[in-house]
Structures are given as structure tokens and as C-alpha cells.
Design goal:
- The protein is built from one helix and 26 strands.
- It is mostly beta strands and 351 residues long.
- It has a single domain, classed as Beta-galactosidase, Chain A, domain 5, CATH 2.70.98.
- The longest helix is centred in the C-terminal third of the chain and has 6 residues.
Length: 351
């Protein structure tokens, strides 16, 4: 079942789309930033809870620096010094994260109103037309974010785009999750497993050095399930730079094929999230700076580490790193990426 309601915010009229499945679990999506506002899923006892961090006031999603639940772009994550070249021409972006460009700039896709192209049954399609030169990026770009909420509580996201001039593109979703419930404290007891034997070391501004480092023997190793808080404050460069995890792992397996990226579970509720993607990397951000977020959906405040973002994407700063998979999109090509978030609990968890 799909329902649409419209609300007026300081950024304009926003459409909220609620999709409910046969079990009563639901996902709430927003035309502001093609965002995820809520996901209500059962625990091992069948009790529903909203596991998505968010705000009490819809206006707080407008120009939200934390990018809560939204699709950032044109380039999710960081581009060093806000500069890149295409065919010998340099392009300059806004600097909005230390010395670097982050998430497409201050008015990136996450802060734009998308149109609803279609909404029926279990699926909604958001579309946004980004003009040539918007936030410094070349080419007129049309991007679609298609969400489908299934009867087995999987939120499947397809990201598709076309351009009329060479450009760079990196799209993901930046939802913050707490599987105990959005207002249930920190996620440091959540258990994470990553299908990733390598990660991307960075400098102290979180720009990749270009190396591919083995996780074995480091706090970056989640090849076996481990609590997020286990090594969070270890004296290790990647963790010191970001005050916790804010790093990109290289997903094992064939780039371009849908495969396991991450499994996240919360012991008390029994909820588990399984993330699959055809993207090459997964950025894990443990909400290291969430304590300055606005009043939350329960009327309280989030603390640092109250949520974790598992962002499947191309690699940070790929436009400046020829050793990374290319993030270039040319006319006549179609950018196509998939991210599946599948929620389960108790006996429903696959072994």
C-alpha cells in the first residue's frame, strides 16, 4: 500500500511517500533529497520500531548538514581541494569540508526538491534535473532514484542517470540507522560484518592516499563480526582522524555484480540489516558528530554515535585517482547502481 501526503517547509512543498507491506512494516520516503525519513520494522517479538534517525521538525531537513537519509550528489563523499579535471579542463567546486568538497556542495542533490515521476504499488520514482554548471559540475544531468519496499522488508534502491556532457558522478544513500530504534542510545553495541578485506587509507582530511590496505591485524577488520565500539577509540590513524569510523572499504567480489557488502545486527532487539550492492566501496560512518543535530523525532537529542551510515558508493576522490574505478559518466552512457537494505529479525535471519 502506498500513500502520499504533502507538507510545506521553508524549502518548499515536500511529498512524503509511505509504503507499507503485507506485514505492516513500512518505509517513509521524502522528495527532499530523495530521502529515507523512516523505516518501521519488527524486532524478534514482532514489535515495530522506527530505526531511522530523523528530526521532529520537517524544516530541519532543509539544508541539513548531516544529510540525514538523503541522496547526496553529484559526488557523494569527498573530492580533494574541490578540484578535478576532465579532458584537460579543470573544474572547481565549493569547499565545504575542511579543505575539500563534500557531498556535491552546500546545495547538493540532498538539499534539492526532487519530483515524483511515478508512485504505485510498492515503488516510487524520484527524478531530479541538474543543470550544467550546478555546484561547478559540467553537463546537464537527469538522475532517478527508484525505491521499492518489498513484502520481506527490503528497501531496494536503484540510482540511474544520464548526461549530455562528460561529468563525474557518485550516488548513494546517507541514512543513519539504529536497529534498536532511532532513539535507543548509541550504536556501539551493534555487531558489524563487512565483506571487505581491504580499505582505503586517508590523509588527516579523509582524502584517500591511493593505497589499498589489508584490514587484517588492524581495527579496520570487520571480516568477522565485531561490535562497532570494540576498536572505535583505538590509537590508529583512520580512527583518530575522524573521531571514529568514517572510512571506505573495498567490497570483495566482482565490481558491478550485486553482492554482500555488510551485515549489521543489534543484539537486544534481534534486528539485522543485510546490505547488498553492485558498487565498489562501502563508507561506514559511525555518526561521530551527531550531538549537534536538531531535536529528534521523539523530542530528545541524539548523541555522537547514535546512528551508523552504511553508504555503498564509488571511491572518494576517484576523479583525481586514476588507480580507482572511474567515476566519469559520458553522453550516451547510463549510470546504474543498486543498493538493497534488507531487514529481518529472530528466526527470519539467514544463516
Amino acid at each position: 500500500m502506498l500513500e502520499i501526503k504533502k507538507i510545506t517547509t521553508k524549502g518548499g512543498q515536500v511529498s512524503l511517500v509511505t509504503i507499507s507491506n503485507r506485514s505492516g512494516a513500512s518505509a517513509v520516503l521524502s522528495s527532499l533529497g530523495a530521502g529515507i525519513v523512516a523505516i518501521n520494522v519488527p524486532d524478534r517479538e514482532g514489535c515495530l520500531a522506527d530505526v531511522v534517525l530523523g528530526y521532529a521538525d520537517a524544516n530541519d531537513y532543509v539544508d541539513d548538514g548531516h544529510c540525514a537519509g538523503k541522496v547526496p550528489g553529484r559526488y557523494a563523499n569527498r573530492i580533494a581541494r574541490g578540484r578535478f579535471e576532465i579532458d584537460g579542463k579543470e573544474y572547481t567546486l565549493a569547499i565545504n569540508n575542511g579543505p575539500n568538497a563534500l557531498h556535491g556542495g552546500p546545495t547538493g542533490f540532498q538539499n534539492r526538491l526532487w519530483d515524483i515521476e511515478s508512485a504505485e504499488g510498492d515503488t516510487v520514482v524520484f527524478v531530479y534535473h541538474s543543470a550544467d554548471g550546478e555546484e561547478g559540475y559540467p553537463g546537464n544531468l537527469t538522475v532517478r532514484a527508484t525505491y521499492r519496499w518489498t513484502d520481506d522488508s527490503a528497501l531496494c534502491l536503484e540510482l540511474r542517470a544520464e548526461t549530455d556532457a562528460p561529468t563525474v558522478l557518485n550516488l548513494t544513500n546517507h541514512v543513519y540507522l539504529n536497529l534498536g530504534g532511532h532513539d535507543c542510545g548509541t550504536v556501539l553495541d551493534h555487531i558489524l560484518r563487512l565483506n571487505a578485506s581491504r580499505y582505503l587509507p586517508t590523509d588527516d582530511t579523509l582524502i584517500p592516499t591511493g593505497d589499498f590496505a589489508a584490514v587484517a591485524g588492524t581495527p579496520m577488520d570487520f571480516t568477522e563480526p565485531k561490535a562497532l565500539g570494540c576498536d572505535l577509540h583505538a590509537d590508529f590513524p583512520a580512527l583518530v582522524y575522524g573521531k571514529g569510523y568514517d572510512n571506505c572499504w573495498v567490497i570483495d567480489g566482482e565490481h558491478g555484480a550485486l553482492r554482500l557488502a555488510a551485515v549489521l545486527s543489534e543484539p537486544r532487539s534481534g534486528r539485522t540489516l543485510i546490505v547488498e550492492t553492485d558498487q565498489p566501496g562501502v563508507q561506514v560512518y559511525t555518526g561521530n558528530w551527531l550531538s549537534d543535530t536538531p531535536v529528534n523525532k521523539s523530542g530528545g537529542r541524539y548523541d555522537d554515535y547514535s546512528g551508523v551510515a552504511i553508504e555503498c558508493q564509488d571511491f572518494p576522490d576517484a576523479p583525481n585517482r586514476p588507480e580507482f574505478p572511474s567515476a566519469r559518466l559520458n553522453p550516451g552512457e547510463t549510470y546504474l547502481r543498486h543498493i538493497h537494505f534488507r531487514f529481518c529479525a529472530g528466526d527470519a535471519i539467514p544463516q
